[in-house]
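Hi R.,

Quick one: here's the N-acetyltransferase domain-containing protein sequence you asked about.
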Amino acid sequence: MIRKLNEADRIPLMTLLHKDPALNLFIIGDVENFGFEQDFMELWGEMDEPDGRFKAVMLRFYGSFLPYAEGPFDVEGFAELVRKSGKAEMLSGSSHVIEKFRQVLECKSEKQMFFAELKEMNQQIRAAAATPGEFQIAKLHDVEAICSLTDLIEEFSGSSANSRQTLHKALESKTGRTYFAEKEGEVVATASTAAENSMSAMIIAVATHPENRGQGLATQLVARLSADVLEEGKSLCIFYNNPQAGLIYKKLGFTDIGTWSMLYI
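And here's the predicted structure, written out as tokens:
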């Protein structure tokens, strides 16, 4: 049975999510930060009737849907919720869960990325990152300039529709932070966190203007951002699909823990 969740479901929901806290970082963060009574997000759960535990959940955050399941679950039941919402832009999650939706949802395109986690940073790089650099911490008035850069990046083309809304909400609610570098008044590199919670944060939207690549700007931003988050006692996760980027992240201390898939609806 699939039903909409509310505050009374917090403990059994977190019991399920904490079994894999890295993969469930987004759902954990949104529940911690926003609870259950928001117009921009909803949660549904499928209950294992004999013992009353949840075996699968799905989050809607604006137009993005994120399912998670331990094992077999009612794929068609969750897919019908996505169809009926009238708001679906993307379905994302661990690849072994998302692959079950390919046959039941019509999608425009699909992307798969490596999923890596950072618990302990390379000490040399961490020490260097502590040195003040030429970067800025984004405020609400920087949203348009930052998104104007990410609009140029091919990898972000499927998510540009709600990028401004998502970044604005993250900065406003303090569920994410963004560092960026400028040259001649234009944002040329940026890196953000999302879904920050008591345990972890996700690094997202790492981008460098095409004319400013090869200068190490994004690497410096990610290093400084990672050092600051680790200093707060949290771990970090990141997606990547570029092998060269993967080498950079691994030098920082990230290790691969799985793959993540996105279906654009």
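The mean pLDDT is 90.

Cheers,
M.
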